[in-house]
Amino acid sequence: MSPASGRARKLILGWMKDAGLRTWVDQMGHESQWEVRKSEVTDRGDCISDEEGVRFQSTFLGSAALAGILPVSTLHIANKRAATVKDALKENSFEATEESLLQLKYDPKAVWGYIKVHIEQGPVLESLGLPLGVVNGIAGQTRLKVTVKGSQGHAGTVPMSMRQDPMTAAAELIILLESLFGEISSWPGASNVIPGQVVFTVDLRAIENMVRETILSELSHRMYQICDRHSVYCIIDRHDAMALSHLSKVGMLFVRCRGGISHSPAEHVLDDDVWVAGLAVLAFLESNLYSSMQKVQHNFKKVQLKMLLDSAGTMMTVLCSQVHSRNCFKPMKIIHKASRRISRESEFFMYATPAQPLRNKTAKPNIGID
């Protein structure tokens, strides 16, 4: 959604093309790749765009479009500079319309599941000396946009006792919210003017919806009380985000990262850990995909599964070659041998839905690898 993301997209697409993969980008900026060999099973990978949605405070634009739950009105959301989502897409040569959004939607019947490999973005795995962690619950997210409105005035002439200052109320609210607080802005933002309005964001997450709703209800009640005491009022707008769970079951593997650092140029993962994560995904596909496919496609053969796994293994080799990992060129038979060993020793996949986290060893995964 930004010029930087556009440059990164071109770089990744270049790597894929150099490796002989067929690539394409849809109208929401999703990159899809690989057609290594033909089979009756669609073997492809999707790189989903705009997961965090910071530029427009509109999380999961890409995955919401794939799940068919992205409102057309989202295209007209504007950021601080009055640029809209539609403008940003147009800057990247994407023409997003109501018709094009409908074309992006996946058919739920054609999706077995969604598997995601992601850096941990925390220090726990590194502290335990473990390369991987299985996610047993994905935290549902509620973002709040809190607008505190008061009375704008001259900072030098309005007595302190008669002010309706939204900034002092916002400051107390932020102390209440502590680590949930994110971004803040005030209007008009002049040094000699009591602000008339303050806007800040809140990011609230919990694995269980009931826990999140209980916390949200209590926080909202206390926020209104604080604003009443300061003779100002606040508007709390909420946005809930968990897009792909509307389309299918989801699963996630965490890969350790150095120092737990994320969203920073210092973000770093070990090449070998990326390789192990790839083996885990292959092991899961090998142990679950055949039985799952037979349920929806009775003539599905094991040879097709081998073709699918070979394609996934080829894609792993392509990705790993870009980070120069010495381990990424092992023969496919070694991959399968390691996959079977890992499959016997570990449980890789757990479901997590918005309603409640639950475990299921008879998963029906798709090969959407983010």
From TrEMBL:
InterPro entries: Amidase_Cbmase, Bact_exopeptidase_dim_dom, Peptidase_M20_dimer
Domain Peptidase M20 dimerisation: 138-225
Pfam families: M20_dimer
Zinc found in the keyword field: no
GO molecular function: hydrolase activity, acting on carbon-nitrogen (but not peptide) bonds, in linear amidines; metal ion binding
Assigned keywords, A-Z: Hydrolase, Metal-binding
PANTHER family in the cross-refs: ALLANTOATE DEIMINASE-RELATED
Protein name (record): Peptidase M20 dimerisation domain-containing protein
